[in-house]
Amino acid sequence: MRRVIVEYAKLTRDILDMLIDKYPDGYDYEDIISFKNAKGETVKAVELRTEDTAYLVKVSSKLESAMEEYAEDEDYFDDNDDFDVNVPDNENED
């Protein structure tokens, strides 16, 4: 099984849909997984699983807000430049 760590800016519509389906009222403390990344930093995330992938979505106040906004208005994702997939390629480059 593939494991993928997802940050707020890398969220996709599919991942947001899975988050809303799994945590319709938001996630609780017991839903949060803590682990150390390769740099030795503690990361907190919620887990989503598909047949072949385990997603660990990093927890943040922006994530909670995005879930709430997206649950109320699905156009929130398309209209929000916080998500890398909505920024034109030439703006993603440093």
List the helices and strands and how they pair.
Layout: E1 2-6, H1 13-22, E2 32-36, E3 42-49, E4 53-58, H2 61-72, H3 75-78, H4 89-92
Parallel strand pairs: 1-4
Antiparallel strand pairs: 2-3, 3-4
How do the helices and strands follow one another from N- to C-terminus?
EHEEEHHH
Work out the helix count. Answer: 4
> What is the average per-residue confidence, as pLDDT, rounded to a whole number?
80
SS content category: alpha+beta
Largest β sheet strand count, sense and barrel closure? 4 strands, mixed
Number of strands: 4
Commentary on this structure:
- With 94 residues, this protein is of the alpha+beta class.
- Helices cover 32% and strands 26% of the residues.
- It has a four-stranded mixed beta sheet, with helices on one face.
- A hairpin with a 3-residue loop joins strand 3 and strand 4.
Question: Which tags fit this structure?
Answer:
94 residues; alpha+beta; disordered C terminus
Can I get a quick summary?
The protein is an alpha+beta fold and 94 residues long.
